[in-house]
Amino acid sequence: MNRRIEIAKYVVADYVCSAITWAAFWIFRKQFIESKKFGIHVALTFDFRFVVALLVIPSFWVFLHFLSGLYANVYRKSRIGEIRQLFITDVVGVVILFFTILLKNVIIDYKTYYFSISVLFCMQFILSSLAHFLLTTATNRKIHNREIGFNTILIGSNARAMQLYDDMESQKASSGNKFVGFVHIDSGNGFSSELGKKLKHLGEFENIHDVIIKEKAEEVIIAIESSEHKYIESILNKLSDTETVIKIIPDMYDILTGSVKFSSMIEAPLIVVSKTVLEPKQVILKRAFDMVVSLSCLVILCPVYLIISLIIKLTSQGPIFYSQERIGLHGSPFTIYKFRSMYDGAEKSGPALSSKDDSRITKFGKFLRKTRMDELPQFLNVLIGTMSIVGPRPERRFFIEQIIQKDPQYTYLHKIKPGITSWGQVKYGYAENVEQMVRRMKYDILYLENISFLLDMRIIIYTVLIVFQGRGK
Hints:
By secondary structure, the protein is an alpha/beta fold. The protein has three domains: about 5-145, no CATH class; about 150-275, NAD(P)-binding Rossmann-like Domain (Rossmann fold), CATH 3.40.50.720; about 280-470, no CATH class. About 50% of the residues lie in helices and about 10% in strands. The chain has 16 helices and eleven strands. The strands form three sheets. It has a seven-stranded mixed β-sheet with strand order 3-2-1-4-5-7-6, sandwiched between helices. It starts with a helix and ends with a helix. Residues about 255-260 have low confidence and may be disordered.
């Protein structure tokens, strides 16, 4: 299966539907609004303005649908949920078009505004909903017919795992799980030889990350025995920084913490363990805010970037910018960008955290760190989507492995994108050792438990005060 092709189908469908909608709306305005206003038949003229609108407005709708997440998880869509999401998105889109374009159009009276916007919304919503419904129905049919499947690893090795495997394989309409093998948890229990005859044994759970990569697994299903329930927390901790969908059998619901939901009320009775702390609408709002702020800052702060770059170049040898691999959402690596605040080659001896009187930091670098201005290039990370304005500080894998040994809860921070600033940064500042990183982590866990747009605004305000007061630690 090719996700890019599936996404392209939705993009093309949205573009075509939006183009048809705008062309029909153009004709509607000429025939019913302008003709009635002027008392004569207004001829249809498909002029340059019409052609530009026919290119730009469908692109606007595609971009809006992208922001709302309509092109995400194309193989795991709910048709009802998708139509509900389209309704909300199309309402927002029509309101934006009304204030940017329709407000300037010819009208008969104020009722014309309401009528025009209603016609535009109905045409856009009906066409786009029909296109999405047909595409999603076709995809779901392929999944049910086992033409499309998700490589799935079964975590568990005895009676429950075997029962679940048999039940799911015997379903008339497949839920999309293509089992590639199983791993066992407790070496004391071993694994069922009967299950081994039906499904490939992939080893122990301790090596689950390597197994997921090797098998290209997209889902894992936890079906362990009652005697193995004590391992559930460590299992979820270990899986939380992977990109796999995690499902679990319902009779273990009472031992789970966090947000969960049924994957289906009709197919196999499994519960999906949520890997995000944000609702879809919160994700959209946070991403939209990130894009607007990061783009604005990159443009407005251009003179500041140039001045800092010039000072760095004049005061020390080496590159202006510093890039490094960090770990982000779901444990995925990405490249972070900063203004260089240390002397070139400061980590030739290996990864090392900076301290208050670190001799590796340049004189200008100390100022940059105090004011947090060394973080300014990270607005580029935010714009391309690897970071957010507010989120836990991203760390290197070298230090993450040490933190997890002291507190496995750290993996929960990978449920959201890392940020330029965070509650941990505001309350604690830079950490000089792993112990301090663990203590700072507590603030970021607290942020995850209380995450909201208002809390993000509060953290941003505190950060701005730190910048202007030079209180960065």
